[in-house]
Structure to design on (437 residues):
């Protein structure tokens, strides 16, 4: 191991001797049902989980603040409908440094995706179980494992008697999976630092960039009429089948996706080109009636180069709209009854330079523990983008476990990953914030 001081040896020793405690804390967090919400759903056990963390971090010398943010909505791009935080508090815990060092944000989201049928799981998704050195349970890797290691790294420093020069800012927020509003609420509350890490399951790699993600809803108009009766031309009042009108437009989205794959402005060192995928289609009201409208919901993922000055994905939306509009121009019905787009839940892309000290520092800390990682990007989205783009805190994802098992039945995190990640974060804290003499 490439440890650089007695302090580092001592702190890593504390973490390595605390394997069972790490597993116990992760299991405690998994036992809290923090399934991500649909709008309007009541809170679950978000507060219980946050209080577990709050109590432990206080015992480690942190000043803590648990707060329910003001509702978010009112035109914020992340959310289509207003969302409140009643019963879903956010937590920030600050360990003050002695002065003269850089601050570091440690961030994790506490919501987890729904479990699906429990019978499909080998063990109860809310009762963590170890099999073959892996800790199983909903959220084990995405990302209660990471929240555990971030919190435990703070504890380990305290136990090893190491005082830092810079501040540690620990923040666990809700609503990453649902919308991204939890991270936004934290940023709006002033949660910031000189740099940050989100402990998403990167398997010790560093995600230095992510694509933006947004939902587009295309509505194609038709005109209702009896499906078993001959219909006059639509100009003479005849029916128009909205499904058939929509088909060339849907097909054109595939061509746009193909074009993006080959276009030079869609090349990014860490990310796939932009993509658009139809995911939900709704049309028709009666089996013997021409459908009067067809709505096609699409998932649009776009590159950091496709944002406007306000950080929204409007340029990407506009490109999709223009592309589909050009195809619709071939259909006289659609020329006179144009399809429309609605864009909702726009979570913007972000990137941190690959030579940024937080990127280099995280990889070095992991590498010094025998966990060689690489710099890569996330084609989906993570809270790190909010902290980077809107909070002024260059934030990467760097965490235990593999993204491939996130959101899956029998989700797990290797126990060795928990130990090594907690140790890596503790090392990074010492090197980034500086150790007080
Ligand atoms: Zn996650």
């Amino acid at each position: 191991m490439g440890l650089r001081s007695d302090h580092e040896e001592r702190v890593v020793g504390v973490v390595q001797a605390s394997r069972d405690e790490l597993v116990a804390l992760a299991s405690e967090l998994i036992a809290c049902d923090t399934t991500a919400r649909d709008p309007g759903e009541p809170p679950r056990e978000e507060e219980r989980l946050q209080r577990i963390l709050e109590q432990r971090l206080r015992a480690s010398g942190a000043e803590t603040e648990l707060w329910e943010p003001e509702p978010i909505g009112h035109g914020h791009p992340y959310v289509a409908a207003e969302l409140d935080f009643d019963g879903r508090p956010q937590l920030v815990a600050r360990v003050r440094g002695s002065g003269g060092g850089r601050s570091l944000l440690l961030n994790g989201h506490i919501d987890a995706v729904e479990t699906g049928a429990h019978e499909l799981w080998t063990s109860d998704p809310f009762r963590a179980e170890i099999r073959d050195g892996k800790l199983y349970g909903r959220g084990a890797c995405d990302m209660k494992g990471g929240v555990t290691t971030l919190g435990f790294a703070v504890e380990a420093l305290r136990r090893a008697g190491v005082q830092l020069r810079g501040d540690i800012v620990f923040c666990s927020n809700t609503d990453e999976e649902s919308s991204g509003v939890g991270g936004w609420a934290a940023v709006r509350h002033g949660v910031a630092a000189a740099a940050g890490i989100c402990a998403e399951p990167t398997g010790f790699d560093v995600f230095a960039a992510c694509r933006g993600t947004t939902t587009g809803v295309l509505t194609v108009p038709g005109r209702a009429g009896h499906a078993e009766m001959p219909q006059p031309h639509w100009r003479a009042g005849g029916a128009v089948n909205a499904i058939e009108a929509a088909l060339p437009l849907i097909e054109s989205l595939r061509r746009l996706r193909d074009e993006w794959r080959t276009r030079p402005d869609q090349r990014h060192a860490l990310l796939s080109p932009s993509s658009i995928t139809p995911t939900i289609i709704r049309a028709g009201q009666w089996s013997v009636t021409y459908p009067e409208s067809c709505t096609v919901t699409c998932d649009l993922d776009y590159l950091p180069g496709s944002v406007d000055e306000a950080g929204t994905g409007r340029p990407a939306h506009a490109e999709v709209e223009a592309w589909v509009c050009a195809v619709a121009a071939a259909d006289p019905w659609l020329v006179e009854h144009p399809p429309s787009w609605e864009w909702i839940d726009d979570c913007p892309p972000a990137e941190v330079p690959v030579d940024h000290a937080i990127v280099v520092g995280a990889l070095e800390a992991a590498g010094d523990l025998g966990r060689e990682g690489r710099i890569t990007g996330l084609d989906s989205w993570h809270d790190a983008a909010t902290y980077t783009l809107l909070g002024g805190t260059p934030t990467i994802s760097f965490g235990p476990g593999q993204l491939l098992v996130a959101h899956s039945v029998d989700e797990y995190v290797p126990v060795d990953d928990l130990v090594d990640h907690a140790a890596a974060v503790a090392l990074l804290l010492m090197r980034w914030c500086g150790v007080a003499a």
About this structure: The domain at 212-347 is CATH 3.30.70.360 (Alpha-Beta Plaits).
